[in-house]
């Protein structure tokens, strides 16, 4: 082969780039309801032959294969469900097995653990179920119904009489999973996941079950277990990322999220950030971000949608400072905004195909 100088490079024919097109499977709304899909859910499917054609099979429903012909019969796939603005659903391919056949590596086959790792964060279903009286109303009329309702109520806290030690015990009780307790030979105390599973088991025998309630229970369990799996992942990396929901007897539930990056030698310690969020029917939607640095300084930022709640928080700022000082803490700053939290996730409908987006600031 002749070696060309710089002036001859332009004469070499370009090699056309290879583009791997990730296709999306579209699902009609009635089929999505039959499959029990919810927005952001990770589902598992398999490539199988149907009427001499390779199809994507999900709970006895078959669809056209994305990435054909790269996917082969027997491949396992993970797809993320997304609800579109036109009422249809999209299944976006996330993962396929390394190769098809019964000898495929078990590590390449999607599992529930893998699916939970891809699950979007948040507790939309769990927050609704943990409102006072909602979970109890789903207990079926079985022999031990009263006992299950009693256990659900006993696991709730009281907003009116909330004490620091009570809150600490609740958080620590959710820092260790039920599976870890069982593995260590410890008794498993009642927690939200245990009660959800008990309730779902009791409802198995109901003939005329409400489909929406069943989906909500399953989706809430997915949200809870996904948060635990993702927390364990971050802890393995040296970071704290613990999310949970606190149920109350006398108030709407509160979402609590602890965050702290792992410390590195020779660098200042990273602050502990505690985020709280509630969609209270009394207070409106409220966010509170607490940053604790140097083990004692506390910086607070609050966002409240209702104007009167924001003004009430500003009015009580001096009392809050006094309470922190009694606890050995120092108030660094306290900001209150009568607005939604800027970085809060907002549900935006998917724009129509060909829609014009104005990006001018």
Query: Oligomerization state of this entry?
Result: single chain
Helix content: 25-40%
Query: What is the helix/strand order?
Result: EHEEEEEHHHHHHHHEEEEEHHE
For the termini, the CA-CA separation is 55 Å
- Mean pLDDT equals 79
Low-confidence stretches: 1-6, 15-22, 96-110, 347-361
Shape: globular
Strands of the largest sheet, in order across it? Answer: 1-6-5-2-3-4
Q: Give the strand content.
A: 15-25%
Largest sheet: 6 strands, antiparallel
Helix count from the secondary structure assignment: 11
Number of extended strands: 12
- Rg, Å, rounded: 26 Å
Counting helices, strands and paired strands, the structural category is alpha+beta
Topology, pairings included?
Layout: E1 24-27, H1 29-35, E2 42-50, E3 53-58, E4 61-63, E5 76-83, E6 89-96, H2 112-118, H3 124-129, H4 134-137, H5 145-154, H6 164-175, H7 178-183, H8 192-203, H9 211-236, E7 240-246, E8 254-260, E9 272-280, E10 284-293, E11 297-304, H10 307-315, H11 317-326, E12 330-337
Parallel strand pairs: 11-12
Antiparallel strand pairs: 1-6, 2-3, 2-5, 3-4, 5-6, 7-8, 8-9, 9-10, 10-11
């Amino acid at each position: 082969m002749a070696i060309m100088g710089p002036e001859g490079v332009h004469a070499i024919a370009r090699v056309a780039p290879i583009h791997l097109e990730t296709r999306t499977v579209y699902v009609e709304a009635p089929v999505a309801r039959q499959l029990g899909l919810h927005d952001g859910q990770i589902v598992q499917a398999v490539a199988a032959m149907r009427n001499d054609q390779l199809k994507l099979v999900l709970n006895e429903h078959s669809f056209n294969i994305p990435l054909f012909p790269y996917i082969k019969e027997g491949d396992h796939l993970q797809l993320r469900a997304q609800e579109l603005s036109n009422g249809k659903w999209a299944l976006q391919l996330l993962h396929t097995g390394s190769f098809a056949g019964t000898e495929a590596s078990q590590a390449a086959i999607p599992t529930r653990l893998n699916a939970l790792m891809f699950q979007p964060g948040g507790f939309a279903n769990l927050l609704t179920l943990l409102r006072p009286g909602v979970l109890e109303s789903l207990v079926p009329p079985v022999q031990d119904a009263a006992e299950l309702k009693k256990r659900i109520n006993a696991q709730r806290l009281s907003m009116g009489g909330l004490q620091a030690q009570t809150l600490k015990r609740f958080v620590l009780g959710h820092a260790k999973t039920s599976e870890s307790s069982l593995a260590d030979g410890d008794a498993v105390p009642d927690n939200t996941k245990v009660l959800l599973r008990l309730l779902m088991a009791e409802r198995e025998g109901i003939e005329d079950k409400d489909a929406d309630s069943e989906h909500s229970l399953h989706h809430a369990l997915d949200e809870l277990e996904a948060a635990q799996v993702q927390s364990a992942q971050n802890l393995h990396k040296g970071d704290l990322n613990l999310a949970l929901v606190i149920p109350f007897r006398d108030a709407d539930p509160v979402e609590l999220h602890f965050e702290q990056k792992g410390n590195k030698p020779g660098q200042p310690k990273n602050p502990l950030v505690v985020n709280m969020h509630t969609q209270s029917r009394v207070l409106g939607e409220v966010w509170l971000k607490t940053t604790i640095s140097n083990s004692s300084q506390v910086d607070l930022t609050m966002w409240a949608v209702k104007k009167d709640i924001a003004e009430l928080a500003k009015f009580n700022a001096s009392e809050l400072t006094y309470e922190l000082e009694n606890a050995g803490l120092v108030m660094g700053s306290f900001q209150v905004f009568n607005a939604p939290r800027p970085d809060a996730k907002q549900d935006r409908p998917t724009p129509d195909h060909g829609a014009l987006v104005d990006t001018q600031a």
